[in-house]
Amino acid sequence: MDTTSYTSATGFFVLPRMSFRNKRDKLLFYDFVDRANYRDNGEIKRGQFPTSVAQLVEETGWKEKMIRGSLDNLKKQGRIQIQTFKDKKRGMIITIVNYNEFQSLDFYTKKGELKGDIKGELEGELEPPEKPVIPTDEGTSKEGEGELEGNIKGELKGDSLTTDITTDKQQDKHKKDLCEQIAKNEDVETFVDSQMRINPISTLPRKLFIEYFNTIRLTRKTGRIATSKAQKIWDKLYSYWQNPKIAKTPDGRAAIILYALTVHIMKHDDIQEDYTYGIIRRTTEHEARQKMLKMMNKSGGVNLGITSSLDSERAEYHKKRRTL
What we know:
Number of strands: 7
Shape: elongated
Distance between the termini: 60 Å
Order of helices and strands: HHEHHEEHHHHEHHEHHHHEEH
Helix content: 40-55%
């Protein structure tokens, strides 16, 4: 099999090391940097490229709500600027803020990121791999070059990105209301509710996550966990749910996560979150479903998506833990 077309490189671009709200924002931003024009070309300037929400939905497989939410986050963080075409059917132009600085090696040498020898080897390689793109009057062009594809021409699902989605605003407000520390059950419930609105993990039940994050919180000596740390744990679980290497289907991955969280809650509630990650990585979908069924039969039922702890000898112990 000839893999030349997949492995040969014609140049490179520089990706800055940054922090993002979640993996989706990060992946979108890095894709945007990749697609941005290296040189001015017509109305599309250096650091810009044309696209549309509909195109991003089609390319990523993510829901329109998720795409708009990530674009809104990147705007608020000052990563990108968005300008709609006069003809809204042509979509929008995304501008990478500070693109020139990101692609200049001097920007990193001043920060001590690159040494002189490396800089000398890399300079001159920062050339555009192909001719920069220009949007056509019809709004169609080559796939992967940032232009609108023919099959989505004139089919934008919304007028423009300047129309904010109310639910995204509510999510941002809810996120700002979170405490810095999760110290009690009410804090856990607030945190879980916010995450299920922003990055829901399949249709797994709310009480499963509340029980799990209470368990993780109580593995700390203080009985507290930083909200930022809890966010990283949720993002990790979310990344597993999206990873086809874990299982072929989303339902299969959800079954594995359900099993991992349940086992952790019921049998290893004194161990921190890395144990959960190990279960997820080592368990197949078939094993997860089989073992979960055995746990359900042994405990005599299911309590809102997790094996009931009320029927176990540790019921009182769990009850006390949840009130801490």
